[in-house]
Write the structure tokens for this entry.
Amino acid sequence: MSKPFRIGLAGLGTVGAGVVKIIQKNGHLLEKRAGRPIEIAAVSAKDRTRDRGVDLSAYDWVEKTGDLANYKDLDAVVEVIGGSEGPAADLVRASLKNGRHVVTANKALLALHGDELANLADEKGACLMFEAAVAGGVPIIKAMREGLAANEIKSIYGILNGTCNYILTTMRQTGRSFDDVLKEAQAQGYAEADPAFDIDGIDAAHKLCILAAIGFGVKPDFKSLSIEGIRHINTTDIAYATEFGYRIKLLGIARRENGKILQVMEPCLVPIESPMGIIDDVYNAVYVEGDFVETPLFTGKGAGQGPTASSVVSDLIDLARGHRLPAFGIPAKDLKAAVWADPGETVNSYYLRLMVLDRAGVIADVSAILRDKNISIEGLVQRGRDPGQPVPVIITTHETRHADMMAACELIEKLDCCVEKPRAMCIEEL
Ligand code: HSE
């Protein structure tokens, strides 16, 4: 029998336990595909006594997670603890320094320290693998790094957070509140340890950085990314978007614009029947435009135990059979520092939601501000009447500079009639 590929597993939460389940259930398949058995040699997690629904008795228990970096005869360390700093980051660094391959699902770590870690891996002749870090069970890293390698990538659009997509879909389908649906997503194991990472767009932004790095050959640069989450989206927005023929999606956009790269994460309206509009529930999707391949769409479950663990194990199979690639598809030393486009200069149609008092002159005041900012109204809806009380007014616009829309929102917010912060969302006609 060929020598087993021995791994040390750090983290036994949702994903870690999923990795154990796959290796235990599908070991015979993995062995055929990898050309050798994949064997868990050691595991480490915070609490040894917790029942995780898997039998760990055959594996060595390592008290100090960091010890896996030097643990005897390991071929790879699997890090599924999470967090851009602390024990996960220490373990990944120490393992790579030892020339030990690392498989991780840690998108925060890669988005913030990916350049440093990829350089370290290259220097030490180790591989840094992270299929599970982006879009859960969708093999998008392999697709971007290998399947699309013939192309110059022009744009990447992604629905990259399962929790947000689940919340937006369920709110639309049931009319239930944001908080109520978020709790359900947490109970199903989709959400991050801190769900603010999901709903404020941070988790999705981490993932977009990683895709942009591979797609454009640039250093992952989380700090340069403009990010907005979905906390402010309410059932009024969802209902009007549907009426106008759109879905609201937390959309990551990375595209070439005039020699620069635009990188933004924000809720957008997309046509209901578009490649992104049809992606519901916990599904993620990545829509890529390459110069020869045109526009493939990749989709699948973006969160949850099975899909995420499936991606971790796919990396292990690659490593076990000797398939080696640089972390971001090219040698780390060749990754460029990107020149980022200013999101304020992007031009889009907008959806604008106002809560204003129902009284004479309000629309005149609002439209004067839009006129002064050179914003042309495409449509305007105010339904019902409630004299003297707040009512929603929904406006859609022609193509507008982002900075002009933001400036108009600030001025509208100062009007006496305006009782809530105006909310503007791009309309992306994908
Ligand atoms: N919390 C993430 C999501 C899953 O909801 O998509 C792991 O990245």
Summary: The mean pLDDT is 96. The first strand starts at residue 5 and ends at 10. The pocket of L-homoserine is lined by residues 161-163, 190-192, 198, 203, 302-303 (CB under 6 Å).
